[in-house]
Amino acid sequence: MAFPNPFNNTVAIKYALYENTTVVFEFMDILGRTILKTNTGHQEQGINEFNWNGKDAKGNEVPSGVYFYRIRAGNQTVENKIIKQ
Question: Do residues 23 and 71 lie in contact, with contact meaning Cβ atoms separated by under 8 Å?
């Protein structure tokens, strides 16, 4: 779950892990191009949170629009949509 959505500067993404595992976040633009991929490292089981500052891999602020994020944790993958104002 992403909050707030739509967001201006930063969006918080909460997610549940059913085991201790490594988590990878990938953010894509509306065309499916990866703009940021980050390995958050080993995470503990339970509710976790990742804050995205709306910047791409080069540190540039992304323009307003629709984006998708993918969370990979162990053998689980979750995808969702967020909107930057």
Answer: yes
- Looking at residue 17, what is its pLDDT? 95
Q: What is the C-alpha separation between 67 and 75, in angstroms, rounded?
A: 23
Instruction: Give the pLDDT score at 83.
Output: 98
Q: Domain holding 8: CATH number? A: 2.60.40.4070
User: Residue 69 sits in which domain range?
Assistant: 2-84
9-22 core/surface letters (b: 16 or more CB in 10 A; e: else): eebebebebeeeee
Instruction: Give the integer Cα–Cα distance in Å for 62 and 75.
Output: 29
Q: What is the tally of structural domains in the chain?
A: 1
Mean predicted confidence (pLDDT) in 62-83: 97
Q: Are strands 46-52 and 34-43 parallel, antiparallel or unpaired?
A: unpaired
**Any idea what DSSP says for residue 20?**
S
